[in-house]
Write a structure and sequence with these properties.
Elements: E1 6-15, H1 19-29, E2 33-38, E3 51-56, E4 71-77, E5 90-97, H2 100-109, E6 118-120, E7 124-130, E8 136-141, E9 165-173, H3 176-186, E10 190-195, E11 203-209, H4 225-231, E12 237-243, E13 265-271, H5 274-283, E14 288-291, E15 294-298, E16 304-308
Parallel strand pairs: 1-4, 5-8, 9-12, 13-16
Antiparallel strand pairs: 1-13, 2-3, 3-4, 5-9, 6-7, 7-8, 10-11, 11-12, 14-15, 15-16
Length: 310
């Protein structure tokens, strides 16, 4: 039986003339399953043409993998929008892989420009690239460079021995205490891991997910032992970066009405049990209830969150 509370999809915008390139990239190059879903414009206000373009790494063995996969969701935007802008809140998605450099070699052969992976302090072995619309993607290895063991199996998506995972949706926050309280106490997610790269990189990363699992060092979520374990989870996490050197009145641009025009990131969607949805709606004063199974709200930084229970 699938876990009922999970991160459903990350919602990104695409220009109409780039949609075919996006479909080719995520479906043919990255090996994700593509589905075009028709929805109601009233229920999905960010979707002007009533179509969601969903890309998902789907496991065929549902008995061994009981977690519902998270999709990259694209909606066509006919007006101009910004993918990169000043004080940008949204950052990236993370694809978790067994062998980053094998994926790099594969992508380069497919004509996609991406550099080799490298170990970033004690955070992870990774590299990054952009999709055809310019949205950022991180390729994150599920082991550190020193713990990597090459496997002979290949032929799966991105030339990997097993199916990649859409592991992270990464956003930035201005007030870590307020944001962490929202994701844990309001949305009911669990904090699995925190990462502080050191004095050279003054920021902290927080990883939240819907799960009952306990990390190896639950007594110290900042322990390095929790990091590879977190990356190896079969479900997506909301990764939140908090920069230490911002002023108390600093705010990230996270919504369309904040001065940067329409943004490339529309928000993200969560699937939760009806009881939890009603509980969340009751806690959020600004929640927009569209029915017993659908609610829209914003987190403390203004990111749009869709909650559904159908």
């Amino acid at each position: 039986m699938s876990v009922k509370n999970y991160i459903k999809h990350n919602i990104l915008r695409v220009q109409e003339h780039k949609l075919n390139s996006i479909i080719h990239f995520y479906n043919k190059v990255c090996g994700m399953v593509y589905e075009c879903k028709t929805v109601s414009n009233n229920d999905y206000p960010y979707c002007s043409d009533g179509k969601l373009h969903l890309f998902t790494y789907k496991h065929t063995d549902t008995q061994t993998n009981t977690h519902s996969p998270t999709s990259v969701c694209f909606v066509v935007e006919k007006t101009k929008f910004s993918v990169s802008y000043r004080n940008q809140g949204y950052w990236k998605i993370g694809l978790v892989l067994q062998d980053v450099n094998k994926a790099v070699n594969y992508l380069n052969k497919e004509g996609v420009s991406v550099g080799p992976g490298s170990q970033f302090v004690d955070v992870g072995f990774l590299t990054s690239l952009c999709d055809p619309q310019g949205h950022c993607i991180e390729l994150l290895q599920d082991t550190f460079e020193g713990n990597f063991r090459e496997r002979e199996e290949k032929g799966g998506p991105l030339d990997q021995p097993y199916l990649p995972t859409l592991g992270q949706i990464t956003i930035r926050c201005a007030d870590a205490e307020k944001t962490c309280k929202f994701y844990s106490e309001v949305l009911g997610m669990k904090l699995l891991c925190t990462e502080v790269p050191g004095n050279r990189y003054p920021f902290t990363l927080y990883f939240f997910a819907y799960t009952q699992e306990t990390p190896p060092r639950a007594d110290d979520l900042a322990a390095v032992e929790n990091r590879e374990w977190t990356y190896q989870r079969p479900y997506c996490q909301i990764e939140i970066q908090h920069r230490h050197n911002t002023s108390s009145d600093f705010a990230y641009v996270t919504g369309d009405e904040q001065g940067a025009g329409t943004l490339g990131h529309a928000g993200f969607a969560l699937h939760v049990e009806k009881e939890l949805l009603q509980e969340i709606a009751g806690k959020c004063e600004g929640a927009h209830v569209l029915g017993e199974n659908l609610v829209y709200l914003e987190d403390p930084d203004g990111y749009l969150i869709q909650l559904s229970s159908d």
